[in-house]
Amino acid sequence: MTPKKSHPLSSWHIVFPNDANPHGTMFGGKVMAILDIQAGIVATQYCRRAVVTASTEAVDFRTPVKVGDRLETIARVVFVGKTSLVIKIDAYAENPISGKRKHCTTAFFNMVALDEDGAPTAIPPLIVESDEEKHDFELAQLIKRNALERRKQSESRK
Ligand SMILES: CC(C)(COP(=O)(O)OP(=O)(O)OC[C@H]1O[C@@H](n2cnc3c(N)ncnc32)[C@H](O)[C@@H]1OP(=O)(O)O)[C@@H](O)C(=O)NCCC(=O)NCCS
Known about the structure:
Layout: E1 9-14, H1 28-47, E2 50-56, E3 70-80, E4 84-94, E5 101-114, H2 131-156
Antiparallel strand pairs: 1-3, 2-5, 3-4, 4-5
Bound molecules: coenzyme A.
């Protein structure tokens, strides 16, 4: 299969009152859903296959996102295995009036490409060139190893 490059995909969301938790800031589950959808879009664009989320790395929410803020997510494929991809997503909250911008979180999603029968299927290898891409690739390798180790441990506890 011909190796491919991944380009960052940015997406904007307006934070409405019905996105908020009882404290008036954005509900974490809503942020996770936005990130998961964005990861799925980027993964599908890369491999042109149906994809599912296999697991996520722990997500730390660093700063609250306020109702009325704009949430920008920037996602890129940072690692590709045989049938799986790791997507890195950075999320930023921006006040639309002041333009003040805060980094909210960086999340990593493990996605798997599926064929027409729903089985994992091979996808094109990733072209990794810049120092940033090399750094993210190595980090994603570690993240994937951790996820597989977690899966092994949870299966052995059943
Ligand atoms: C993800 C899923 C397709 C993996 O199927 P599987 O038969 O266990 O797959 P395999 O063990 O053959 O692994 C296939 C690939 O998935 C990767 N993978 C499997 N589980 C993983 C996990 N928990 N985290 C990261 N990668 C995972 C493997 O490393 C492998 O990658 P590679 O081909 O690049 O080396 C399957 O578990 C599934 O369908 N899960 C439900 C997904 C879903 O519904 N998500 C929505 C939220 S509920």
